[in-house]
Design a protein that fits this description.
This protein has seven helices and eleven strands. By secondary structure, it is an alpha/beta fold. The strands form two sheets. A six-stranded parallel sheet has the order 3-2-1-4-5-6, with helices on both faces. Strands 7-8-11-9-10 form a five-stranded antiparallel sheet. α4 links the parallel β4 and β5. The longest helix has 13 residues.
């Protein structure tokens, strides 16, 4: 695989090292002269000095042959522009962008730049996973496919406690795919009886989330989208 990485901060530099160790062809672009002087001592011809938002710099890096462009600079506008140019002008098949400010995520997505990586979102998901009080954790969101996988902690007073999976009237477009109980996971059958403390995984259309979580949260309450923890952080979406 031929990859171009824009931005030689800690993320870009370490990512370059890892990809090179895996046998990939990588070119790292950096526009800070001091930073470039440092990385070029190690990377030599694999590093290029210049602004990755400029066409001649991208062409010098070999973008016309690139399979992947990764934009991880500290400026979201630059990351958007680099990925747009890579996709639309040079036909690069895959782009990955870093989102420094989670409020800018929607701008990347509106322009079709996916996937995007936000350190803030990643840390929030780790916190969600370590703090059961949130009740609901988003494991995977596929916005274009209108699918998501969520993990829910079954509260003691949840309507689903004591029910057989086959008796649950789950909304159409949702499916219970796994149960974690006492540290062990298994695929439930229609005869599986749910217990308080079970961690259940479900795949569903995002629009059905509140309907589905009503079965697994405290009686009379809907988990809603509170567990996502990304309201203001997502700019409505790091």
């Amino acid at each position: 695989m031929r990859a171009i990485i824009a931005g030689a901060g800690k993320v870009g530099w370490n990512l370059t090292r890892e990809l090179l160790e895996k046998g990939h062809e990588v070119t790292l672009i950096e526009d800070d002269p001091d930073r470039y002087a440092t990385i070029s001592q190690e990377l030599e011809h694999r590093a290029i000095y210049g602004d990755a938002s400029e066409l001649w710099v991208l062409e010098a890096a070999g973008i016309e042959r690139a399979d992947l462009v990764i934009a991880v600079t500290g400026d979201d506008e630059d990351n958007i522009l680099i990925c747009q140019v890579a996709k639309e002008k040079y036909g690069v098949g895959r782009v990955v962008a870093r989102v420094n400010n989670p409020r800018n995520r929607e701008h990347f997505e509106l322009l079709g730049i996916r996937p995007v990586v936000s350190a803030t979102d990643l840390i929030l998901r780790l916190i969600e996973h370590e703090v059961p009080a949130y009740g609901l954790i988003h494991l995977l969101d596929l916005a274009e496919e209108r699918l998501e996988i969520i993990e829910m902690l079954l509260a003691e007073s949840a309507p689903a406690v004591g029910m057989r999976v086959g008796d649950l009237e789950l909304p159409s477009g949702s499916l219970l795919i796994s149960v974690l109980r006492d540290g062990k996971g298994f695929v439930p059958t229609a005869d599986t009886v749910l217990q308080a403390g079970d961690e259940v995984l479900a795949v569903l259309d995002p629009s059905l989330e509140e309907d589905l979580t009503a079965y697994f949260g405290p009686a009379g309450e809907r988990a809603g989208r509170a567990g996502r923890g990304d309201g203001a952080d997502r700019g409505s979406p790091g």
